[in-house]
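The protein record quoted in full:
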Amino acid sequence: MGFFSNLFGRSSNQPGEADPLVEADVYMAYGRTEQAISLLEEALKNNPQRTDIAEKLRSLKKK
C-alpha cells in the first residue's frame, strides 16, 4: 500500500485509490527514491499490463 492509500485507509484493491505514478512523484519530490521504487514495484506486480509504471520504474532505477 502506498503513502496516500495508507493515509486514507484504502487497500490496493479498493476503487478510488491514488495512482501509483502520482504517489511515486510525491515520494520523489521529497527525495524518497527508495520508497518510490518500492511502491512502483508493488504496483507493477498488481498491474503487470501498466507499461507506464514499468517505464517510470526503469527510469528511477537508472538514477
Q: What stands out?
A: Residues 7-13 have pLDDT under 50 and may be disordered. The CA atoms of residues 4 and 23 lie 7 Å apart. The two ends are 24 Å apart (CA to CA).
